[in-house]
Design brief:
single chain, two-stranded antiparallel ribbon
Length: 72
């Protein structure tokens, strides 16, 4: 059983390890690049569901949280 950790950065996004496949607003299948996906949790991103740094502009405040999942 593998463990997956999702970290909610202090005053920032959820950081999810791995590459995400998703369908964009135009119905096109897409894939993220890199080793980590940053998911918005402040509501200010212009590129939902991903963080675009907009949390800095609204002075978003939230505690750091770590969620650890056991994945089959
Ligand atoms: S958490 Fe970064 S834009 Fe929302």
């Amino acid at each position: 059983m593998a463990k997956v950790t999702i970290t909610a950065n202090e005053n920032g996004p959820y950081l999810v390890p791995g590459i995400a496949k998703y369908t964009d607003a135009d119905g096109n299948e897409q894939e993220t690049q890199g080793k980590m996906v940053a998911i918005c949790r402040c509501g200010a991103s212009a590129n939902m569901p991903f963080c675009d740094g907009g949390h800095k502009g609204i002075n978003f405040k939230a505690a750091k949280i770590e969620l650890v999942f056991d994945v089959d």
